Amino acid sequence: MEDILVPVLIVGILFIGLPWIIFHYVTKWKSSATLTGEDEKLLDELHDMARRLDDRLCTIERIMNAENPNWQQACLPDSGTPLHDDVLTTTRSRRGEKA
């Protein structure tokens, strides 16, 4: 009896149990990977906000170009000019502030 029961259990686990577990979690994975209505609404709001910010930036650039056509070149750092944190530290030290 045990000679037949062990192979039947192994075959049952391999051909019924294992595929059932795999298909179960594949369907769970596919259903959770979709966007909800709330997620789509948030993405739409973020897209609109990005578009408005881009419009504002374009407006600011037009104003700056009208006032000073060479403002972009004046804002670019030279090769010897420190970047980011060094600029902030240099600016603060010139004003007498602590970093």
Care to give the gist of this entry?
The protein has helices at 2-32, 37-67, 71-75, 85-95. The protein is mainly alpha-helical and 99 residues long.
Verbal overview:
By secondary structure, the chain is mainly alpha-helical. The protein has a domain at 38-65. Helices cover 79% and strands 0% of the residues. The chain is built from 4 helices and no strands. The protein has helices at 2-32, 37-67, 71-75, 85-95. The longest helix is centred in the N-terminal third of the chain and has 31 residues, at 2-32. The mean pLDDT is 80.
Rg calc = 32 Å
State the shape: rod-shaped
Largest sheet features: none
Strand elements, count = 0
- Termini Cα gap: 82 Å
Multimeric organization:
single chain
Q: How much is the average pLDDT? A: 80
> Hey, roughly how much beta strand do the residues contain?
under 5%
Order of helices and strands: HHHH
What percent of residues adopt helix (DSSP H or I)?
Answer: over 70%
Total of helices: 4
The stretches of 5 or more residues where confidence is low (pLDDT under 50) are: none
Class by alpha and beta content: mainly alpha
